[in-house]
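Quick question: what would this complex look like in 3D?
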Amino acid sequence: MLDKALKGSRGYWTLLVVLSGIFLVGLVTYLQQYSVGLGITGLSRDVSWGLYISQFTFMVGVAASAVMVVLPYYVHHYKAFGKLAILGEFVAIPAVIMCVLFVFVDMGQPRRVINILLHPTPHSVMFWDLIVLNGYLVLNVIISRATFRAERRGLPPPGWVKPIIYLSVPWAVSIHTVTAFLYCGLAARPFWLTAILAPRFLASAFASGPSLLIILALLVRRFSKFDAGKEAIAKLAEIVAYGMAVNVFFVGLELFTALYSNIPEHVEHFQYLFLGLHGHGILAPWMWTSIGLAVVALVILFIPSLRRNESVLVVGAMAVVGSLWIDKGLGMVITGFVPNSFGHITEYWPTMKETLIVLGIYALGALIITVLYKIAIEVREELQS
Amino acid sequence: MRRRSFLKIAGLGVAAGAIPIARALGRASSTQAAPGAATGKRWAMVIDEQKCLTKQGCTACVQACNKFHNIPAIPDPRHEIKWIWKERHENVFKEAVTPYTPAEVKERPTVVLCNHCDNPPCVRVCPTQATFKRPDGIVMMDEHRCIGCRYCMTGCPYGARSFNFVDPRPYIHGEPVDYPTRTTGVVEKCTFCAERLGVGKRPLCVEACEGTGCGAIVFGDLGDPNSAVSAIVRSHQELVRRRPEIGTSPHVFYIL
């Protein structure tokens, strides 16, 4: 099937070359980190996790969001998602691969990661995260292969894959729940010590993932004859609207609980995040941007005439992704460390090298999705003709 | 498949997943107290802030530890390695400070180090058991197994752990000492001088403090009712520990 990815237009090859180039820059930068250590990043004794682990957290959400297509289509037989399903499943694969890579580049001793398997430790949430993430990758590879092959022959998915599809639904929820448990079970970090973290992660995932899928589906329609369908896009937009509304509601719950209870060690983190604390507020402008984008997104998503206009919807989808990327891919993790347990403020900002490594992994993810989509498009166009 | 039968299957899946998790949690709680802890050894430390204050600006404990544990002197504070150091009193014991506490009390330098908790969050979160609890209460670190994920630093409520962001060896000055240096990319921390306890000696910081004539740090076995630490924890009514409310049960006690 891979042969389908080997012939394409000039634009397709240019895209592949550009993405490979960015990936290689990231790889070379990583090799430097590999030889000299994590000192090339902006991380510190006080802020021990930064951009890598934040991106991991964000991408777990994107991976989990495939369930928003799988559940309606395979479980509730919502026919309009017939063409979209494969695009959704194909997003999950590179997303999980990126998650694993973001964790890998964060390791101080990458050669020893196998120790997690050599000394399995069930009381560590990281152990469970590794299991659910890799399990999710395997499930999605099996499901997308089986359903895609069947689709190619014009047949319904084989019977044996159905139980696996049903399993993938709670499994998708589990990857983001366990990822939230990495944070919310730590007495040391009051900012994360909230039972709403897992539901909030899921809500933001079910807004940002389908938004990304809307953008991708519209791009696919623009550059090929593969049309996921207007109804499917409209339904995704509704899912995003609910996901985003619930997410904003959950953030509001967190703010109320922290600010009304007025417990200093809870308030201080939010103060740092939105206003700055003792003259340190590097994240504040980003967070206000995130709020602004969330408002724009909600207006577009909740006014039917705007939501149904696809060229406006795409702006809304981008606003959702941008808003939630700032919230989860930047603010959520870093703020847990500021101020630290002594009340000291050490600010974190990623270095250029760290950013290049992150961009390299994003480029690899984009490369994989491009190739997978190319195969899907070729097969679809063959079937149509 | 109907919605109801789907929910049934999903419910069963969740239940099946809960069994190993429950087992895992059971194992995690077994780190709370070593079997026979009451009769066996339980190393503990008492730091007397008042005695410590008698020698202003003294850093004998910190220097002894740094020197004999090959702790690098890294100038960038972001990459610092610290096993034992001094923090402002008000930052260590927030609950002991009122709006009327005089500045000289708030600014008192207080010695801090790993608390060798009974229920250490760092041990709970470590994915490789590179950090683990010994039956004698010491929270140890296997720097050869550590993968450098820094989850233990994230989980430690006391900021007691340091990560080797850069190669520490170029920053180790002075005469070479007989203690292993560490490599880039691993976490390290105070070990209560486990290597010295093993040969019947006491921790370096304790000896250094005694050497100055202060004797502000007392160390010993809580399992032995006749030890000095046992006598102090029984007799002092105002003994405090850092953040007792989170249930870690630190075994570094303070007399404020």
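Answer marked as accepted. Chain A touches chain B through 53 residues (CB under 8 Å).
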